[in-house]
Specification:
This protein is α+β, with helices and mostly antiparallel strands. The protein has helices spanning 35-46, 71-76, 81-89; strands at 27-32, 57-59, 65-70, 91-93, 98-100. The protein has three helices and five strands. The protein has a three-stranded mixed sheet with strand order 1-3-2. It has a two-stranded antiparallel ribbon with strand order 4-5.
Length: 104
């Protein structure tokens, strides 16, 4: 969703070779509403040749970076202050994927 409007993406590999290499400057973000959604997306990427990274990032087997992020977390962060800290405390960051629930 961008600005409340859904869209689809079509990607093509152009064989850029050594001149046009992929970098982490481009990534996809997947917003999730539940722990089950978070785990499903995370496990699909990591379980199919991807790898775990820090703070809810996981590159897939082709090197494309994905950020699997709970909506409640990304919604609270811009507010800053106590609200953001309280929401952030609801999540544990395992090797990389966000987990809903208390941190202790």
């Amino acid at each position: 969703m961008v600005g409340g409007v859904g869209f689809s993406v079509s990607l093509r590999e152009r064989g850029g070779g050594p001149t046009f290499k992929h970098s982490e400057a481009f990534s996809f973000q997947v917003a999730t509403d539940t722990q089950e959604q978070t785990d499903r997306h995370w496990d699909a990427i990591v379980g199919n040749g991807g790898e775990e990274s820090a703070c809810d990032w996981c590159p897939d087997r082709w090197g494309i970076s994905w950020q699997i992020t709970p909506r409640i977390l990304t919604g609270a962060l811009p507010a800053g202050g106590d609200e953001a800290r309280n929401v952030a405390r609801l999540f544990k960051l395992r090797a990389g994927a966000a987990e809903f629930g208390p941190t202790d």
